[in-house]
Amino acid sequence: MSASSSFTALDWVAVVVVGLLSLALLTFPFTIAPSFAGMFAELGEALPAVTRVALTPWASPALGILVASPAVVALALPAESTLALRRAMVVLAFFLGVIALAAAMYAMYAPIFELAGNIKPE
């Protein structure tokens, strides 16, 4: 294996970050969502559709698998494949992870934003 076809330390850091993003999304319904679900039960109002989807036990883990897929493929490609393609797949996985985690967190805060938007000054 030549040095030009292997990942550098920075590439491996990106792979670890993608793994952490995937782990956060996979565990989202069991760690973060229950506390928000309890708070929403106390509010008693109808939740936005994005929040209802995010509270399901399958949506965030599915996003976690989607995020991990490009990085896993990049790691599984043979060393003879182009390094640029493998790096691009890791970068794609990183951006997918950031967007997916941001979307999941937005979904949790959407009812709060909606409630705040309904407050009218007297």
Write the layout of secondary structure elements.
Layout: H1 9-31, H2 33-43, H3 49-54, H4 59-76, H5 83-117
Helix pairs in contact: 1-4, 1-5, 4-5
What do these coordinates show?
With about 120 residues, the chain is an all-alpha fold. It has 5 helices and no strands. It has helices at about 10-30, 35-45, 50-55, 60-75, 85-115. Helix 1 (about 10-30) runs parallel beside helix 5 (about 85-115). The longest helix is centred in the C-terminal third of the chain and has 35 residues, at about 85-115. The mean pLDDT is about 90.
Which labels suit this protein?
single chain; 122 residues; mainly alpha
Pick out the low-confidence regions.
Answer: none
Question: How many extended strands?
Answer: 0
Largest sheet descriptor? none
Radius of gyration: 19 Å
Overall form: elongated
What is the helix/strand order? HHHHH
Average pLDDT over all residues: 89
Short account of what is shown:
By secondary structure, this protein is mainly α. The protein is 76% helix and 0% strand.
